[in-house]
Design a protein that fits this description.
single chain, alpha+beta, 9 strands, extended
């Protein structure tokens, strides 16, 4: 059995040597036959062994050819693929006829070798290129990928051309201002609801038939109840948007009124720290006489370049809000003490969180509270009645009564004219009866956009403690304290 196997193996070897010798003698001298064999393979012929790469100048014997072909087998790869993927017998690449000399040529050769899969040669040429010129990649990009050959940008919004989008606007077309857009709504009526079908009549719209005088009166009473609700009416239709934006009589009452406007602002102390009326001493009678003229001064509050309209004045001029609460959330980390009874590998870290609450009232009084209780459990109870009757004692144990005033009197009647407009001075009770706390805060805006809500942030300027017995002042550090942010509270109504 073993003898038969040996004879078959010897016959196979003899036949294989004859086939290799015959193919070597009949090897084509050009690549044309190689390409034809490749195309024949593509048309469904069985794959045949590709001819060997060209032999170098040193002539080798058939025995050497037999030895070199025993461990390798090549398939036919036509054209560029054959020249790129098969190594030459003498180690010479077809494209290496001329060595690159400049940085750009080295970079192009590196890209070519990288595409062929020769990462070692590619890395060598990359290094040579960047040694000659550190910005050779830009030269390659400008040569092979110029900016003028880039395709035009497509419509990234995928919107119809008829949609008024900024991506479809020409740079030479004028941009429509908001004031011009509002002015174009003049003379429009309130549109009614469209009929459901062609044969049915449209449903009635009673407000569309109301005269303008009655409609303005309705808007006036809405603004007196809630200016935010009055502004949201501008979203109903173009007619109401025009009236809300341009009806200066309504904005004048809102701006100068006592409900939400500047007539409710105090630029001198109006009450004592405990919220009681000020004593009527001789010196303070003069102050009261100045405050009594405040109502007439408010009516004469002039417009300026900073506040060209009462709507702009109400929106931008510093003022306090009474229908909400100002809350400051403080978070900081401090190291804890390791236990002495057991060994620990690390030191504990404590995350400290507490809140400061400020609520202002129209009579010039305010309430200040420092607590670790969350706002949801404190804000609904932060009312004047609970402070007086000591209800909800669990969350209002440390509530402090106080008073407030604004600096920068726009009427030039009393006040500190040297202070910046929008500075709030607050005096509250202390932890003990001998102390008085004084805070200075600055009215700011939380958002940076021009249309963002204004006067909804109070930034710290200083915090002091006054000892009435020793007449000493001490300053509190504000290392961890943060600014106050206003939050609307619906249960407060218009502020009371």
């Amino acid at each position: 059995m073993a003898g038969d196997t040996r004879e078959e193996l010897e016959a196979f070897r003899r036949q294989w040597r004859e086939e290799v010798t015959a193919r070597t003698k009949a090897r084509p001298s050009t690549r044309k036959n190689t390409t034809e064999s490749s195309s024949g393979w593509d048309q469904g012929e069985l794959p045949r062994r590709a001819p060997f790469p060209p032999i170098s100048k040193n002539t080798r014997s058939p025995n050497d050819i037999e030895t070199s072909t025993k461990g390798k087998e090549y398939h036919a790869l036509g054209g560029k693929d054959e020249a790129g993927r098969l190594e030459m017998a003498d180690g010479v690449h077809p494209s290496s006829s001329r060595e690159p000399s400049s940085a750009l040529e080295h970079y192009e050769r590196a890209v070519e070798r990288e595409g062929e899969g020769s990462l070692g040669d590619s890395l060598t040429h990359y290094r040579k290129a960047f040694r000659l010129d550190a910005a050779v990649d830009r030269l390659y990009k400008n040569k092979h990928f110029p900016a003028s050959a880039a395709p035009p940008k497509s419509n990234i919004s995928n919107a119809s051309v008829t949609v008024p989008n900024t991506t479809h606007q020409s740079l030479h077309e004028p941009v429509t201002l908001v004031s011009e857009l509002i002015a174009s709504f003049q003379g429009l009526s309130i549109p009614g609801e469209v009929a459901l079908t062609d044969e049915s009549s449209p449903p009635p719209c009673p407000i569309a038939n109301i005269p303008s005088e009655i409609l303005v009166n309705i808007l006036f009473h809405t603004a007196m109840l809630d200016p935010a609700l009055f502004v949201r009416l501008a979203q109903v239709c173009k007619r109401l948007a025009f009236l809300v934006s341009t009806e200066d009589r309504i904005w004048r009452h809102v701006c100068l009124g006592r409900e939400y406007g500047f007539r409710a602002m105090h630029y001198t102390w109006g009450v004592t720290i405990t919220g009681k009326p000020l004593p009527t001493s001789v010196g303070e009678q003069d102050q009261y006489s100045l405050d009594s003229n405040l109502d007439s001064a408010v009516d004469q509050l002039p417009l300026s370049a900073t506040y060209p309209s009462y709507r702009e004045m109400f929106h931008k001029r510093p003022r306090l809000r009474f229908n909400g609460c100002y809350i400051s959330t403080v978070n900081y980390i401090r190291p804890g003490a390791a236990t002495t009874t057991q060994a620990t590998w690390n030191s504990p870290v404590l995350i400290v969180t507490y809140y400061r609450y400020l609520r202002f009232f129209r009579d010039g009084s305010c309430v200040s509270l420092l607590s670790t209780t969350e706002p949801g459990e404190v804000v609904p109870h932060l009312t004047r009645e609970n402070i007086r009757t000591h209800h909800a004692a669990g969350s209002l144990d440390h509530a402090l009564r106080g008073r407030w005033k604004l600096s920068g009197n726009p009427y030039d009647v009393g006040g500190d004219v040297d202070d910046d407009e929008g500075t709030i001075h607050i005096e509250t009770e202390g932890a003990q009866t001998k102390y008085i706390y004084k805070m200075m805060l600055q009215l700011k805006s939380a958002g940076k956009a021009p249309t963002a809500t204004r006067n909804n942030k109070l930034a710290w300027l200083g915090f002091w403690s006054y000892n009435k017995l020793t007449d000493d002042w001490a300053e509190f550090t504000l290392k961890n304290d943060r600014a106050f942010f206003w939050s609307r509270v619906m249960s407060y109504g218009n502020g009371g």
